[in-house]
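Predict structure. Chain length: 552.
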Amino acid sequence: MKFPAQKRSDFFKLPSKLKLMLVNLGLSITPIFVYMPVKAAEQIYVVFGPLQFSLPIASLEVYAKEGKIDGKLAPYAKHVEPQQMEQLREVLLTPIDVTPVAIAQFLYSPQGEDILNRLGQIIQTKAGQPGFYAMRAALIKAAAYPEGLTLLNVLREFPTYGIKINSDRGFAEIEALSRQIRQTEMAIAAVNQESRKEASIQREVEYPSQIKPSFSILPDLRQPGGVGYTKEILTLTDFGRGRSFPVDFYLPQVNGTKLPLIVISHGLGSDRMTFAYLAQHLASYGFAVAVLEHPGSNAQQLQALTKGLASEVTPPTEFIDRPLDVKFLLDELTRSFGRQLNLTEVGVLGQSFGGYTTFALAGAGINFELLPADCAALNNSLNLSLLLQCRSLELPQIQYQLADSRIKAAIAINPIGSSIFGQSQMANIAIPLMIVSGSHDTIAPALPEQIKPFTWLTTPDKYLVLLNKGTHFSTLGQSDSAVELPPEVLGPDPTISQNYMKALSVAFFETYLVGELSYRRYLSADYGQFISEDPMPLSLVESLTGEQIIKK
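Prediction complete.
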């Protein structure tokens, strides 16, 4: 499934006049639209208080196909530049490669219905009724077009005579988005500024030139280590939970000492291959690495949804099963490899939903007191990760024992947890922790999901790594079974971000698992600047406050 997310996100970079026009036309939010055998929409109606304006969809179709602006479209077109009109044309015609079955399965899932409920308040029927069912019908039918699902085809298939746009709600959404963008920009600027400040102090005070080793003559942690290793595929079955899952187990060929172990947890809709590159790199430095696959939230689960074999993106029970998978894995490795591995001091690394898994294992508990209030305002939030976090409210509200005392150091990449944990539970994490964020992450936005949670941490050994221009998927490696993503969604050259993760993970786990304090030198803003590359420059900070990220 390919989603050209860059085309959608480009809307928010458009000039204000074009954004105003798109809102008026009901095009500012990509519609998520059940078959109803009625006449397709012919008009778009926009209501401003007592005034109502309309535009024939046929005018948009003529413009999209032929580039001609007729008399009905001209009053709108005169307010924007020709280049901006061409952008509108591109938005109308850009196809999304998705089948009717796949889009239908998603829209009938709880997450899809949450999105439809929200958009239905903006895009309505001519009678002013929420557009929930009409949007679902239009999307499914539009996906059957030979050229693919396009916004123009969705407008054609909207199953009422007219499409009514709730302009007040639309403008409120735009204002909320603009506010979030401003706040995020300020927070990112604060991180970058603090990183430069810390780097300067480290160069001039902590490591003055006469005593500090130059990074250029130190070992390059981006390059493979010199340790050989074997790879074995394990299949573990937890009969108590009726759950079986595969594990890629990398075992370095080192004698005479118990090896440090790192567990890697993938994100939602992903699999264990997406971090194979990092597992191999860590193994070459003498770390045993276990990369497990969570069966209820992996690529296979997403494929089952699109084929009609599953009813949801992931069940709420995954919030419990994922950490328990890791705990069961450690128990099994203790039985089978206890003589070869140090299983009392283990590292864990996870991305996205795997970042949640990492936080839970590190000591953060599900915050059932905070969740109801945050999830009640879900329709007013632009944080897409809350669609997943709020599913945890369907769990029995008891005290789950998800933390594991064997976990002694953790890295969370693009993690989610702002509401499911909140400040009080993030403060319970007492082990060394590194959080990695992408400034252009639209799934788990940097400010609410990584930057603010970093300021909540009380552990003295904490690091925030910011990938400027990094997306939610920038650190992922290739996989044949995971959902295929276009380059725009992956962000700039993934080799850059993968090299960052290689170097920083080696330094972090050498410092906090092995106790090799010489690697602490690499965990610095100074080193972050040394390895930073365009077009995805890196910033690293060890200290940041809530006041800094909201400073005007």
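Summary: The chain is about 40% helix and 15% strand.
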